[in-house]
Amino acid sequence: MRLFKLVITSCFLLLSACANTAQFEFNAPADDNRNLYTLGTGDNEKLAIEDALANLSLRLSSDVSSQVHTLLQQSRNNFAVHDSSVFFQQSSQIARPFTFNNYQVIKTNKLAEQIQVTVSVAKQPFFSSLHREATQRLTELEQVQSLAKQQNNLAHLAVSQFQLKQMQSKLFKDIALLKAFAYSNSLYQDYQALLQNAINASAGFSYQFVVPNELKYLFAQNNLYQNAVGFIGQQPLTIFVSGEVILGQYQQKTAEKLQLAINLLVTSSEQPQNLNQLNLQAIANDRSERQQQLISAFSEKMWL
Question: Can you say whether residue 83 is alpha, beta or left, with left for phi > 0 and alpha for psi between -120 and 50 degrees?
């Protein structure tokens, strides 16, 4: 009898565990006209939400990867007269880290030490935010170009192409995502117009990029200044970089602080024009890790 009770209890526990396991979802609900849906799991609700939003970022990036490739190819074709292949590199396959502010947890499941959440993200506020941020970045660059035109500073206008190259990957993913969800915008046309302005201004110059060997690792990954488009003229235009690395201690760890200046020199006037004065810092005991931190920080900077 005692053995029978033990068997019954074991079966009951097993069935309970199966019932609890069944509470976990394998797929998020299908998106509808108002919301995007995603699942996430973690040791607590906060971590589960972070996992859900990271999964949504990955899904959205994957969904538009082919459209990003199409935009890049279209851009190459639009500027086929120039050697633009070095400018329009294939966009990074790393997921675009979207920020979601209008989300809501609509379901929570618990099993042992794990929590699973189903999260909904309101489409309209999310896409409006993407569009607003992208428009602002392009508007700022348009203002830079307008000022350069007013001052008849064609060299500054020409090198604005490097800032366009810097924003290309992120911008094209946003454009592709907005297009996939039929969100009306003119971001691609606006980007192309700004790039055409820069390439037109480049036609009167020849181009050279100069950087000390000790700093080349900062520029090798994104080729921001090495790959220039449309410089077919005679007047020399040089981008030269100078910097100083200072080693020290920060919170009992080795710190590497880099003071960096990026300058533009047009030989006819020989008056350097400062593009950017940067102050970057990385903290790690391993030198290669510090360099990776600097590369990451440097890639986020604006150039003009």
Answer: beta
